[in-house]
Structures are given as structure tokens and as C-alpha cells.
Amino acid sequence: MRGFQNGTPIMNSVLGRVCMPGMLPLILCLCAILAGCSAAEPPAESDAPTLDSVTSSSEYLPGFIDAYRDRDSGELYLVVEPEQLDRDILHFASFLDGNAFTGTQRGVFADESVLRLHRDYKRLEFRKINTAYYFDPDSALSRARDANLLPSVLAVAEILDEDEQGRLLIAANPVFLSEALLQIKRAEDPEAEPAFGLGEFSETRSSLLDVGNYPRNTDIAVSYVYEDPQPEVEGGRTLSDSRYVTVQVQHSLVEAPDDGFQPRTEDARVGYFTKQVTDMTSLDATPWRDPITRWRLEKKDPEAALSEPVKPIVFWLENTTPEIWRDTVRDAVLVWNQAFEAAGFLNAIEVRQQPDDADWEASDLRYNVLRWTSSEESPWGGYGPNFADPRTGEILGADIMLEYSWIRIFAERTGLYAPGSRGRSRDMCALGSHLKTQLALGRARLLGAGRADAESELVRQSLYDLVTHEVGHSLGLSHNFRASQLLTTAELSRASTDTDAPLIGSIMEYPTINLPDDDVESPRYFLTAPGPYDVWAIQFGYTPALADAEAEQARQTALLARSTEPELAFGLDSDALTTTTGVDPRVQRFDMARDPLVFAATRLRLLDQISAQLLAQYDRPGESWQALYDAYNSLHSERFRQLRAASRWIGGVYVDRAVQGQTGAGQPLSAVPEAMQRSAMALLSANLFAPGALTFDEALLRHLQQQRRGYQYDLRQDPQLHQQALRLQQTVLEQLLHPITLARINNSALYGNSYTLDKVLYDLRVAVFEADMQGSVDSIRQQLQREFVEQLLPVADPRLGSEHDHVSRGQAWYTLEQIADRLRQALDSDSATDAASRAHRLALLRRIETGLAPSA
Rounded CA gap, 99 and 95, in Å? Predict the structure, then answer.
């Protein structure tokens, strides 16, 4: 009966009942049955991998987190040390390869976060930690720091084995062959128009590519495949097959840096990328401890005014860099050393060339690399990402992607007038894309001036500008879209021959190309060095802190007090005045000069001059007319940008972010003077709304032909001149009549705006209608007038779904009634000289009447 001593309570109860007198035969029978069970074969051993079995059958990849890869199946296993549990590990993800349609191209930065590997019995959790909040350790509230800040469990891996040292074996494929650590496919807007997108994630087609293991980081490259057997929208030519889209991602698990880095808190007067950290124990109105992103630079000689760094920032030129441009790219990187000298560092940046037989890849996080691609459908020309510790802002590495297509001036056949972005590319730098149009404009100007020999210098300066700009991003600097207003239009022309005078205040701008007079022998088209703002910004970010906290605070206060100096003017992306964001028209992309309306008028006259020369300059026997078509579009792209920039001065508000009591500070908010707004309206009237403003030489228009390529059914053989003009007209009217613009005009009237809404709409109505109210209306003006009415109607009538305020609705209604009255007068006088104009007026009048009274 020995085998029953450890029986279950139920079994023991049964035995108690059967062990009674007269039950011996039954007992013997039961014993025989149990004995048979005991004699059965023991259960088979588990087939689950163990450390011993994995070690014997796999390739050993030692590093930050030791890895084993099965030689037969390719399965990846990670071995986690006990000291790696519940400690901060940085996770960075970047795209190794992808496509333009989803914004997943090579080198695009995807994500950064802090992870902790937490053991939960037989499971290992990958927890994402919230680093956005700070609790003063001296505050009693710090004891509640974890309340309501629970981590997110991104992935769970089964612990397969554990050795005597406490090392844990997990299978890595289920974690990395999923979107657990990085969401690649984003949720789609159900109300958006159909567009190309990723299909469903395919486990069977996805695979783990490679593992790079190093002392401080473990890199795992994965090929994600998304399948859609019947895509609603086809992708571009760069996709081998739209049904199966491959995206390659590198996940990097990085040892968190030590505590020796001293974060530097952001100041709104200077632009750096930041990590947001809120002090939950502070009573300040702005309890923010947002660290700027910057490299760890320490002086070899802390006492010296100028010292080399202990560890310089080293950039490598990838061996894909075209040899003809290597010197230019190297110089454009090293020019930042001028700014670092102002911060006390000598040779802060070094540049090295990757040899063709290098035993490392550019994707290796240990190397900061300027990399090149040449894509047909790239939405950008350069991108300077860095990855930084989310806790402190310390930059740990950077790659700079450069796209060769912008040098080739690949014409963007579609979206030329409203360049957009796809997927993640909306967060990327678009300077290279902008430079495409500027290079085309510069080339057209050089051809017209008979200076084709200067084309190489034009390209060199634009490449220099692009590289220096992207390196600035990799150093932590954000854009500065107010820097273009450093010089007046006249001063820009004079500065074209002065190599020491900056054209604009910052290399972090999107400047319009400087096109000086034809007689300038060595013109300066772009800024080719950090501007005065950039030097000041590097001083703020990188000058080593003084040991005494009070002295350091005084040093920073004195440095930042200079922000009111004109050459240090700053405006961030979010400050830039677009249709829906920003209020200050001085902060814009693609504008130029401290007198931007004078510059715009000058540039528009120059565009007319270049247009008049195009046909003669591009008359090349044996060639197609594609080059002429591209040049024409580059001129219209520039026209579009100048007119759009001018429209944003109407209803604008100046913003001054100087702190209280700062010398040179202006009012925090002040309306743009009425005279400036009226000048903008006059410029639009003359160059966009007036009769003949958008008409060109008939001979030129007859030659606007694209070159056909095979059976290209989507080729627009008609240059669609009316549609081009309408897009210009629509964009400016949308800006002027947008609910945000009209509300800002009304609101700013309460603090000084004298160009009130009634004046704006009166001047706009006169510009659009009055010049030809007593005569014929050309077709360009007909569509302008119809568009103006179509945009006014929803402003006036809330039933049409607009979001305008009540004041705007009343003024729009009144403006439409005035237009209707003027149309009736014109029709009654029968002054129209052609049937087309009369038909246009009748249709427009009927549209207003039915629009204001839908039941009529």
C-alpha cells in the first residue's frame, strides 16, 4: 500500500471505504490495477529548447544581449542576464528599406523608447516605460510617482530555460516578427480618399534578416511583408508588386548611458528638438523640464577657452557617396566646427571616408553615416535624423540620408503646386524637395543669361546648403523659418558679392534661391555656412556648464537675452503661418527678405522675364520639349510660393517670445500694420486676380509638351493651363477665407488690427470683380470669380458645413449680396461684349441666389 501514501484526498477516501472486512478481493483487484499504472512508461521529456540544446545547434552571437541563431531553422534565441532585468534599455527602430508611398524609405527614423525586461514567473515581459514625468525626490509626492503611470506590456516571451546563474532563454522570433515593438501599419482615416497603403501583416512571408551584436547594443533586422491580394490603389513603379510590400526594419536594443550626462532644458527663444518631461511636483505655470537633444561633448582641457573634445562627433561618408561630391559633402559637414569654436570646442566634428572593403554596415549604430540613395519617387532630398536617450536628450547616434534625385532635377509631374507628404515623411525635412524647384529655377535663369557654364557652381552651393542643413538637424537643431528676413531685397543683391555677409540668419531655413543681377561674376545662390543664429544656438546647446549653478544660470540668461537681436530671430515649424497653423507671417517657408512683399514683387517680375526667354533657350534640335515643360513648371511653382506667402500677411499677427523685462522685447502679440496688409492685397490683385495676370505668350504655351514613355495612358497631353491657374487662385482664396484666418482678423481687431474684415472682403471683392464688370470677362477671370463665390457661400450659410464664426458669416452674406447687385447692374446695362461673359454672369447670379436661398 506504499504507493497510496501520497494519494489525493478523494482517493484516500475511497480506500478508507474499501478497506473493510470482506472486501479483500476488491482490494486485491484495485491494487493490481494501480500496480499496472505504476509500471507504465514515464512521460516523454519536453521538446522545448534548453540552453544546452540551443548552444549545441546554433551560431553563437555574443554582445549586449547574447544571441543564438539555429543553424537549420534560423530561429533566434536571446539569453537575458539577471542584471538586465528591470533596468532601462533603449529601443530604437529605423527603416533599412521600404518605399516612398508609406514613408518607410532607407534611413527613416521610426521610433525610440525606454524598455524594461520584467520577469513574470515563466514569462518575460517587454515593458515600455513612460519617461514624460519627473518627481522631485525631495518631495513627499515622489512616493506616489508610479501612480497612474503604469508601463505598457508590448510583448511577452515564454522563458524556455534558466541556468544556475539565473540566465533566461527566450525565443525572439515571436517578439520581433510582429508589430509589438513598432507599429508600422497605421490606422487609416475612413473618411479619406482611397490611397495606397499596406495590406495585412503576413507571418509566413516575413522573416528575420540578420543580427548584429556589439558590447552596448543588439541590432535585429527584420523583413516585414504586408499582403493585399487585390489592392484598391496601385503603388508606384518602385514597388515590384503592389500586392506584397516589403518593409525592412532594424530594431536596436541599446544599453542605457550612465548618469554622467547633464541635460540642458529647452528655452522657447532658440530651437532644438526636445524630449518632453513635466515636473509633477512643481507649482510653476510652465512646469517643464524638457531636455534638448545634443551630443555629449566634454573638453580635454576644461580650463582652456578653446579645447578639443574628449570624444569628437565623427561622421562617415558612406562609400555610396558620388566621388565628384565627396569634397563638397565633407566641407559642408566640417563647416559646423566654426560654430562649435564659439562654444569652446576645437575640431568638435571629424569626417572620415568609409572604405569600399569596410567590415561594417552603415546601419551599425556605432557609426554616424552620411548615406546616399537614388530614388525615382522620393518625397524628400535629405533627412538628418538622430536618436537620443528619451530620458535626458543625449544624442547617441545619427545618420544623414541624401537623395540623389534632387540633383538630377527629377521633375515632379504631379503635386507640383501643392507638394505634399506621404506616411511618416510628413515629419521629415523637406528642404531637398524644395531645392529641386529652386535648382530648376536657377538653371532657367542661367540659361536665359547665357551662363550655362555656372550651372555646376549652382548645384555645388545647393548641395552644400542641403548637407549643412541636415547636419544641423543631426546636431539637435530644429528649423528656423524666420531666418530668411535678415536682409532687405536691396541688401541681398549687394550681399551676393560679399562672401562674409550671411544671406539669411540660419542654415536651418527653407530659403528661396538668391538670384542676383546677371553681371555678378560669382553669385551666392544659397547660404554655405552656419548663420549668426546657428552659432548662437550652438553656444546655447553646447557650451560646457559652469560648475557653480548660479553662475551657470547667469551665463545662460545673458546669452539668451540676445534673442531680440535681428540676426538671431527665430521661428519654429509650429510657429510657421500656414492655412491652419501659426499666426506670424514673418515665420514662413520659402519666403525671403526683411521686406518680403518687395522681394515677392521683384521675384515675380523676374519670373516673367525668364518666361519670355524660355522658348528660345530650350529650342534644341533633336530633343523633345520635356526640358522646356519642366522649366515652365519650375517658374510656376515659384510663382505659386511667392503668391501664397504674400497672402499670409493679411490677417497676420506678430509674435514676440522674449521674456518679461528683456531688453528689446516687443509686445507678445501685435497685429500686422494695416499698410502692410493692404500692400499684400495689392500684390495679389496685380499678380493673381487682375485681368491678364496669369496669361503668357501663346507660342510658349503651344510647346508645353511632355515626352511620352511607352504606353503612358495617364500622360496629360493637354498642359491644363486653366487648371494650373485655378489651383493658384484656389489656394490663395482658401487662405484668405479660411475660418481660422477670418476669426483671427476679427480677434486681432480687439487688440489693434485696423484692417478689419469688412475692409478685407471689400478689397477682395473689388480685386476679383470690378476690373471687368463693365466689359468682357476672360476665362481665367471667370473661374476666379466662380471660385470666389463658391468659397464665400459656405462661409455665409452654416447649413453648408463650414466652421466660420458669426461675424464672418454676416460679412460673407453681405459681400455675396453686393456681388449679386453688381452682376444685375452689369446684365441690365447689357455692356457685355460677348455671349460667354453674359452667360458667365447669368450663371453666377443664379448660383448666388440659389446658394443664399436653397429652396428658391
Answer: 10
**Exposed (0-12), middle (13-18) or buried (19+): which is 661, by Cβ within 10 Å?**
exposed
CA distance to 29, 165, 638, 729, 823, per residue, from 35 (Å): 10, 41, 94, 95, 109
- Dihedral (C-alpha) 785, 787, 789, 794: value to the nearest 10 degrees? -170
d(CA 545, CA 370): 30
Kindly report the number of other CB atoms within 10 A of residue 324's CB atom: 9
Do 274 and 292 touch, CB atoms closer than 8 A?
Answer: yes
With beta carbons less than 8 A apart as the criterion, state whether 819 and 841 touch: no
- Helix-strand-coil split of the chain, %, nearest 5: 40, 15, 45
pLDDT at 436: 73
Give the whole-angstrom CA distance, residue 793 versus residue 802: 9
For residue 814, the SS3 value is: helix
Helix (H/G/I), strand (E/B), else coil: 222: strand
Angle between helices 721-737 and 739-748 (to 10 degrees): 40
Count of Cβ atoms closer than 10 Å to residue 19 Cβ: 12
C-alpha cell at 306: 578653446
Across residues 122-142, what is the average pLDDT? 94
Q: What is the pLDDT of residues 137-160, one digit of tens each?
A: 999 998 988 888 889 999 999 999
Q: Is 558 exposed, middle or buried (0-12, 13-18, 19+ CB in 10 A)?
A: exposed
Strand segments, DSSP code E, in 186-272 are: 200-201, 207-213, 217-227, 244-255
Q: How far apart are CA 423 and CA 568, in angstroms?
A: 33
pTM of the entire predicted model: 0.88
What distance in Å separates the CA atoms of residue 650 and residue 760, rounded to the nearest whole number? Answer: 8
Instruction: Return the axis-axis angle of helices 532-542 and 549-560, rounded to nearest 10°.
Output: 170
The span from the CA of 279 to the CA of 285, in Å, is: 11
- And the C-alpha cell for 323? 566621388
Residues 155-210 pLDDT 10s: 999 999 999 999 999 999 999 999 999 988 877 777 777 777 788 888 889 999 99
Q: How far apart are CA 315 and CA 371, in angstroms?
A: 10
pLDDT digits (tens, 9 = 90+) for 711-768: 776 677 888 899 999 999 999 999 999 999 999 999 999 999 999 999 999 999 999 9
Rounded CA gap, 106 and 363, in Å? 10
User: H-type helices in 201-357, by residue range?
Assistant: 326-334, 337-342
